[in-house]
C-alpha cells in the first residue's frame, strides 16, 4: 500500500539527483528559467504517474476508500491532482513570502533567487506528502482548480494583449516608412491566415451528412469577431491599429480550432478525429509539449511584463515621468543610480502566483478538466468541458480587446496607457 508513495519518492529522489549538480550555477538572471524547469519537471512527473500509478493507488486504503473500486481514469486523475496540489502549495507559499519585496537589499530577494538545493528538497517533499492526504482535500482542490484555471486563461489573454500593443507601439515609434509597410504586411498576412484557416475549420468540423449547427455557429462567430476587430480598430474615433486586430484574430481562430478539436472523438461533427482509432506516442508528446510551452511562455512573459508586474517603485513603472528636476540632476545622479540599481524589476509575488495558477491549469489539461466524457484516458484536454473553456476564452479575448479600444471613448476622463 506504500507503492504510490514509494513511486513518488523515487521520482523526487531522481529529481534531486539530477538537479543538485546544477543548482550551484543558477544565477539571479537564470532564476526564472530554473523555476520554469521545476514546473516543467512537475508536468513530466504528473504525466508519468497518470500513465502508471493507477494500479498502485488502488492499493492505498486512504485513497481507495470505496466499496467498489473506481475506474482507472479516476485514479489517473487523482494522481495528477495530487502532484498539481504539491506544486500549487510550493508556489503559493513563495508568493506569500515575497509580498512587499521592492528592492534587492531585502533579505527575501536572496530567497527568491538562491537556495535551490533546499527549494528542490521542499518541492519534492510537498509532492510526496500530497499522497498522504484524504480524498476530500483533493476533491476540494479539483473544484478550486477549475476557477484557478479560468483566471490563468484570462492572464494569458491580457499578456497577449500587452504583447501585441507593445509590438505595435515599438514599430510605430520608429516613424519610418519601412516599418509602416512592415506593419501593414504582417497585418495582411495575419488576416489572410485567419480567414483561410476558418475555411479549413468548416471542412474539418462540418462534415457532410451531419447536422453540425453548433460547430457552424462557433466558426461563424469567430469570423464575425475577426471582421469586427478590424472595423473597430480602424474607426476614426478609435485610437487603434490593424496589427493588434489581426494578431488577436489569429489567436481567436486558434482558440476556435483548439475548442472544436477537443470535442469527443466519437462526436459525429468532429471530422478531425473521425477516422483515427488510436493516439500515437508522437501525438501525445506533441500535445504535452505544446501545453508545457504555452504555460511556461505565459509565466516567463508575466515575469517580464511591465503592465502587471512592475511594483510602484520599479524603474519600469512610470518611466515616462521625470522623477527629478533638471537642476537636481548632477547632485542626485549617483544617488538615483544606486537606488534604481537596487530595485527589483518585476513583482516576485505575481510571478509565483502565475506558476500556482498554471499548476491548476496544467492539471485540468492532463485530466480533460476532470471530465469522464473524453472517451479515453490516453487523450489530453478532450471533452465538452475543454470545448467550452476554449470557446469562452475566445469570447473573453474578444471582449477584452474591444474594451481596450472603446474604453477611452466610454470613459474619456480616465487615462489609458
From TrEMBL:
GO terms for cellular component: membrane. It comes from the Eukaryota. Its main location: membrane. Keywords: Membrane, Signal, Transmembrane, Transmembrane helix. Residues 305-338 are annotated as: Disordered. The chain crosses the membrane at residues 31-49, 79-100, 120-141, 148-167, 179-205, 212-234, 278-300, 346-366, 387-411. Residues 1-17 form the signal peptide. Residues 305-327 have a biased composition (Low complexity). InterPro entries: TDE1/TMS. It is found in: Membrane. It is a multi-pass membrane protein. Belongs to the TDE1 family. This is Serine incorporator.
Amino acid at each position: 500500500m506504500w507503492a504510490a508513495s514509494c513511486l513518488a519518492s523515487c521520482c523526487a529522489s531522481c529529481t534531486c539527483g539530477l538537479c543538485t549538480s546544477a543548482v550551484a550555477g543558477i544565477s539571479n538572471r537564470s532564476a526564472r528559467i530554473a523555476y520554469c524547469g521545476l514546473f516543467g519537471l512537475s508536468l513530466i512527473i504528473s504525466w508519468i504517474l497518470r500513465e502508471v500509478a493507477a494500479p498502485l493507488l488502488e492499493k492505498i486504503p486512504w485513497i481507495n476508500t470505496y466499496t467498489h473500486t473506481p475506474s482507472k481514469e479516476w485514479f489517473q486523475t487523482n494522481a495528477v491532482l495530487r502532484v498539481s496540489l504539491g506544486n500549487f502549495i510550493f508556489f503559493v507559499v513563495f508568493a506569500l513570502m515575497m509580498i512587499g519585496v521592492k528592492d534587492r537589499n531585502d533579505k527575501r530577494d536572496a530567497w527568491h533567487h538562491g537556495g535551490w538545493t533546499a527549494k528542490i528538497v521542499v518541492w519534492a517533499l510537498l509532492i510526496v506528502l500530497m499522497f498522504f492526504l484524504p480524498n476530500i482535500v483533493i476533491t476540494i482542490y479539483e473544484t478550486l482548480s477549475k476557477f484557478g484555471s479560468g483566471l490563468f486563461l484570462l492572464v494569458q489573454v491580457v499578456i497577449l494583449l500587452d504583447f501585441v500593443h507593445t509590438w505595435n507601439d515599438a514599430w510605430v515609434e520608429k516613424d519610418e516608412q519601412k516599418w509602416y509597410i512592415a506593419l501593414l504586411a504582417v497585418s495582411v498576412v495575419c488576416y489572410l491566415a485567419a480567414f483561410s484557416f476558418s475555411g479549413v475549420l468548416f471542412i474539418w468540423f462540418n462534415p457532410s451528412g451531419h447536422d453540425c449547427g453548433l460547430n457552424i455557429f462557433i466558426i461563424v462567430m469567430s469570423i464575425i469577431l475577426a471582421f469586427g476587430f478590424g472595423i473597430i480598430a480602424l474607426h476614426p474615433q478609435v485610437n487603434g491599429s490593424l496589427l493588434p486586430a489581426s494578431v488577436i484574430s489569429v489567436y481567436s481562430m486558434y482558440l476556435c480550432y483548439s475548442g472544436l478539436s477537443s470535442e469527443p472523438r466519437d462526436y459525429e461533427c468532429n471530422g478531425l478525429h473521425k477516422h483515427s482509432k488510436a493516439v500515437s506516442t508522437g501525438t501525445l508528446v506533441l500535445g504535452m509539449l505544446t501545453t508545457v510551452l504555452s504555460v511556461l511562455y505565459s509565466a516567463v512573459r508575466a515575469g517580464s511584463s511591465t503592465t502587471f508586474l512592475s511594483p510602484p517603485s520599479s524603474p519600469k513603472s512610470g518611466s515616462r515621468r521625470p522623477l527629478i528636476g533638471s537642476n537636481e540632476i548632477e547632485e542626485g545622479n549617483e544617488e538615483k543610480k544606486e537606488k534604481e540599481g537596487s530595485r527589483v524589476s518585476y513583482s516576485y509575488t505575481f510571478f509565483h502566483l502565475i506558476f500556482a495558477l498554471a499548476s491548476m491549469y496544467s492539471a485540468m489539461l492532463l485530466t480533460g478538466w476532470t471530465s469522464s466524457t473524453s472517451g479515453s484516458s490516453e487523450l489530453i484536454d478532450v471533452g465538452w468541458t475543454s470545448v467550452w473553456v476554449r470557446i469562452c476564452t475566445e469570447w473573453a479575448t474578444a471582449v477584452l480587446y474591444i474594451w481596450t479600444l472603446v474604453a477611452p471613448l466610454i470613459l474619456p476622463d480616465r487615462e489609458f496607457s
